[in-house]
Specification:
This protein is an alpha/beta fold and 244 residues long. It contains eight helices and twelve strands. The strands form three sheets. It has an eight-stranded mixed sheet, with helices on both faces.
Length: 244
């Protein structure tokens, strides 16, 4: 059933919570995605079949949550995710897709005692800096700093993405690849070799940078960024089982 959470900053976050027993699963979606996506719904059904708790939600400015996407930033969305985590009890398995991988890492650093295990799917840590800012031309950098925004073309959105100065500057306050990244719980990184949004090099960088007793990276040949083919979904299920 759809419910709404209130963040500390007053944002209204749409959420679906499935009851169950044992370690729950919290799904964290990607940039400009919502909780109606293939992976979110598949994992909800997977958790229900196992009788496990499950939570999926929309970040502010996404899906059915309040706010405008162009006004959001990584810090806001991490706070939204913390509000979703707060309605659960006991250690949870965090499953973060794309940007959700970055958000999951931020939750894991902030609430390590609440994390039983971590699964990332095509994780995109620090993408506002390493993807957007470093990829901008001099003209785009000047535009985003002077006008406060720039529009980038995207195969996922016909109108392109509005990238704001606030998104870039706030992202620098939440980078996870520039400081120690301790993951003291079982962690699985999943990545497709044919991903054109997040490169395998990013997955290898994250894997090399993180520290923990049980970290594994699985690179799937030919898999794209969506990572939603039946065999990919089966890999996510298996990873959840391994870290649970």
């Amino acid at each position: 059933m759809l419910e709404y959470l209130q963040t500390e900053s007053g944002r209204r976050i749409a959420c679906h919570q499935t009851p169950g027993q044992g370690a729950g699963i919290v799904f964290l979606g990607g940039f400009v995605s919502d909780m109606q996506g293939t992976k979110a719904l598949h994992l909800e059904a997977f958790a229900r079949a196992q009788g496990r708790p499950f939570v999926r939600f929309d970040y502010s400015g996404h899906g059915q949550s309040s706010g405008s996407f162009s006004e959001g930033c990584i810090g806001d969305w991490a706070e939204d995710a913390a509000a979703a985590l707060a309605i659960t009890s006991g250690p949870q398995v965090l499953v973060g897709s794309s940007m959700g991988g970055w958000i999951a890492l931020l939750l894991a650093l902030r609430f390590p005692a609440r994390v039983k295990g971590l699964v990332t799917v095509a994780a995109a840590p620090d993408f506002t800096e390493d993807g957007f800012w470093h990829g901008f031309s001099a003209a785009q950098r000047a535009e985003v700093m002077a006008a406060g925004r720039v529009i980038l073309p995207s195969g996922y959105s016909p109108d392109g993405y509005i990238i704001t100065r606030r998104l870039i500057e706030d992202g620098r306050n939440h980078l996870v690849l520039r400081a120690p990244l301790s993951l003291p719980f079982p962690t699985r990184f999943l990545q497709g070799s044919a991903d054109e949004e997040v490169s395998p090099a990013t997955a290898l960088r994250l894997f090399d940078h993180a520290e923990g007793p049980d970290l594994r990276l699985t690179l799937v040949k030919g898999m794209d960024h969506r990572f939603s083919a039946p065999e990919a979904l089966a890999l996510i299920e298996r990873a959840i089982g391994e870290v649970s």
